[in-house]
Amino acid sequence: MSGIYIHIPFCKQACHYCDFHFSTSMKKKEEMVLALVKEIELRKEESNNELIETIYFGGGTPSRLQIADLKLLIDAIYKNYKVDKNPEITLEANPDDLSEDYLIELSKIGINRLSIGIQSFFEDDLELMNRAHNSAEAKKCLEIATRYFDNITIDLIYGMPNMTNEKWLQNIETALSFNIPHISSYALTVEPKTALHSFIQKGIIPNLDENLASEHFYILVEKLEENGFIHYELSNFGKPDYFSKNNSAYWLGKKYIGIGPSAHSFNGISRSWNISNNAMYLKAIAENRLPSETEILSKTDQYNEYIMTGLRTIWGVSLERIEAEFGKTYLDYLNKQASKFIDDNLLFVENNTLKTTKKGKFLTDGIASDLFFLNL
Fold first, then answer.
1. Is 242 within 8 Å of 181 (Cβ atoms)?
2. pLDDT tens digits, one per residue of 20-54
3. Is residue 93 exposed (0-12), middle (13-18) or buried (19+ Cβ within 10 Å)?
4. I want to staple 360 with a disulfide (CB 3.0 to 4.6 A). Which of 75, 125, 257, 346 is the partner?
5. Residue 234, Cα to own-chain centre: how many angstroms?
């Protein structure tokens, strides 16, 4: 068992690009925190007394919770599970929530890693995304946070409409000026039913340009590698010893328990997910029921997941593991499907491991889907 993920389903306001599960009303906050504690207790048998190495508060916006709420949840995990001596405990946070007092208190209750949703250091980008913070708050929060926390990651979004390469480079350079040891960076994507989707359909915002996003991606890779970062997963860059243990566990196929509405869990052979509805979640937990659905992963599902996660990382896809776990049919299929990408210099094999080349990195998800085993 690698970790516990806790989904905090509250946000100050809705970002225009976001399709995660959250509510902007904090009315049921106390009830939700107690329900999360109860789910932590109800699911302790699932850990099989295995060591919990990471605790991750995601969302939503976990920094909407008070220190006492977070402490209650951390204490519940320690009380019901076997926790590593030095676990990685991450809190996702928005810059406008991180006052100096709040940061000091976070460090006292055991939070030792911050994931801060900066997204951009430019005012017009933040307004377009409908972020709750402004550019000055983004910089101020990093200035203070770096005094109290060593292990910090920030999120940056590229491929924004009308964002020049120069402006994107400035974003990266501003981040580097704070000596942040980890950066997660994603291309802006248009999810159905989001405000961004509606704005593009109405012509208020120009459609996204994939070529621009590709240029931004390669600028990012080059600039961060020049500055000592390791590009260890498609969207993640860390200095040595600062890779996210929580996220690395997902990509390496380790088990985890997801607590809270919409949270996902994985135990090696099946995946389950809680209902994405706060009221229904609260009702089920009050009745001692787990409001979740489970899917048993077939051999093909497990193969496809390993291809997708493996190719996104520096660890790649072990051909030896494919043969040992899935058999020769899968290995032969993979070699056949991969050959055209190897010829096009998008994939290569090193130490019996299939990996993406620099040229192929931005296209990883599309390449992976061509390697999936279908109709078995």
1. yes
2. 777 777 888 999 999 999 999 999 999 999 999 99
3. buried
4. 346
5. 11
